[in-house]
Amino acid sequence: MTISLEYSFLLVSLGVIAGIINTLAGGGSNLTLPALMVMGMPADVANATNRVAVWLQCASGMTGFRQHNKLDTQDIIPVLIPNVIGGLCGALAAAWLPPSWVKPLLLGTLLTMTVIMLIRPATFAPPAGTPVKHVSQTPSAWVGLLLAGFYGGFVQAGVGFVLLAALCGTLNYDLVRGNALKLACTLAFTTLSLVVFIADDLIRWAPGLILAIGTMLGARIAVRFAVSANPKVLKVFLLVMTLVGCIAAYTF
């Protein structure tokens, strides 16, 4: 697939914005998926190609959070177990089910997350000093992470909101540490998704890697902002992104 210099610049630019949005909240794929589809990719191919950029963005963001001591590495494995199981099931569903299922699931999920954020804001930002819970002692977190994994494996767009609801709402992580673990979860089930999509020959590597240049840069910018930003600012940003995601999902 031949990619012009202008289109490459567009992909990198959108990738930077999407990397920032995905690292601090979620929904950056609402920008990148339409950009890939403009190239003539079917929805399932664009969905698969987008995962290349998401995978590298997560790796870049995780590295940044770890350098700032905001990634709770001891919690990664317990959190990943239900998330990976769900992610594998979601990726298989994405490869086998009609692409027409994507939009209703995306819009419905984002609307639900927006309502929860407005009605129960503590779900995404528990009060300071709230003790963190362990997954094994919190069945609701296990179920939430399983469903988040399935959604991420199936759609990807907006999965950050679902993961933050599980990590912050049921396990009481603050938004910064929740975002760091969110990237670990996304990296894990995106790896499984990529395996499935590669096997089905759905990935177009050139645009995916060009897009990834931008998402990795955006992730590093977002980490620097997150570790120094006021928690209230992060909370407002999260709410705005859910509203923007709803609008994008409706019009997409």
Short overview:
The protein has 252 residues and is mostly helical. It has one domain (5-251).
Tell me about this structure.
The model has no long low-confidence stretch (mean pLDDT 86). The chain has one domain (5-251). The chain contains 10 helices and no strands. The two termini are 24 Å apart. It has helices at residues 5-24, 29-38, 43-67, 76-96, 102-119, 139-154, 159-169, 175-199, 205-226, 231-251. The radius of gyration is 17 Å and the shape is globular. The longest helix is centred in the N-terminal third of the chain and has 25 residues, at 43-67. Helix 3 (43-67) packs parallel to helix 9 (205-226), helix 4 crosses helix 8 and helix 6 (139-154) packs across helix 8 (175-199). The chain is mainly alpha-helical and 252 residues long.
Give me the secondary-structure topology.
Blueprint: H1 5-24, H2 29-38, H3 43-67, H4 76-96, H5 102-119, H6 139-154, H7 159-169, H8 175-199, H9 205-226, H10 231-251
Helix pairs in contact: 1-2, 1-9, 2-3, 3-8, 3-9, 4-6, 4-8, 5-10, 6-7, 6-8, 7-8
**Main beta-sheet strand count, sense and barrel state:** none
Question: Average pLDDT, to the nearest integer?
Answer: 86
From the spread of the alpha carbons, the general shape counts as: globular
Integer-rounded radius of gyration: 17 Å
> How helix-rich are the residues, as a percent range?
over 70%
- Number of separate strands: 0
